[in-house]
């Protein structure tokens, strides 16, 4: 039976999942990698889009003729403008201000922004901001032209940077999935004892992997719709445990 057919059956049929318990570990490992891919897919798409839009917004801003020239030297920003420069590119807002008119708290009001303030650079992403003091780059002289050249190099490297980042995320997500399956396999042993079943850990490990299908799909859809699920971790463990119980109930008890 193909993995895709197993995937469909695992969404609604505990009886079929119970039949999968005798299959080889290798195929189950492949299925866990498949679930990791599904769970990561919405985040990967949004992240790739945000990175591309962010770099393009920065590139458009730093190529704007109205952009005032500036320099970061000795821990301070020196700008050619006497007033704050704010450029809204739709996805991102770029701020350049050496007059102390714009504060770090003001930057937090923007969903996505990059602000070059008098003594620090502030990056805001989804209303969460982080500031970097220029003093950390003591002895480094940085101009708007240097930053524009750096953005150009990042833009040309995106076809390499984005896949590398997604690969790292996929490896991390897969590792988390395998840890979850391993823990749930132990939970399956406890359910096995309650139901008096003749099963080994490798059987409950396989059952745990396929029992995670419905929650993986559910949370992937929620991520795609950008809907936050309260207590998602507890909800995930509860649903998978109930699913495992229903699956193991389909297995004949030992005499």
How do the strands and helices of this protein lay out in sequence?
Layout lengths: L2 H8 L3 H6 L5 H38 L7 E4 L2 E4 L5 E4 L4 E4 L7 H5 L3 E5 L3 E6 L2 E6 L8 E2 H52 L5 H11 L1 H12 L7 H18 L6
Parallel strand pairs: 4-5
Antiparallel strand pairs: 1-2, 1-8, 3-4, 5-6, 6-7
Helix pairs in contact: 3-5, 3-6, 3-7, 5-6, 5-8
Keyphrases for this structure?
single chain; 255 residues; alpha+beta; three-stranded antiparallel beta sheet
Assess the beta-strand content as a share of residues: 5-15%
Uncertain regions spanning at least 5 consecutive residues = none
Count of alpha/pi helices:
8
Span of the ends, CA to CA: 30 Å
Helices and strands, in order, run as HHHEEEEHEEEEHHHH
Oligomer: single chain
**Average pLDDT value?**
88
Helix content: 55-70%
Give the total of beta strands. Answer: 8
The largest sheet is: 5 strands, mixed
Anisotropy-based shape: elongated
Q: Specify the structural class.
A: alpha+beta
Strand order of the biggest β-sheet: 3-4-5-6-7
The Rg value, from CA coordinates, equals 26 Å
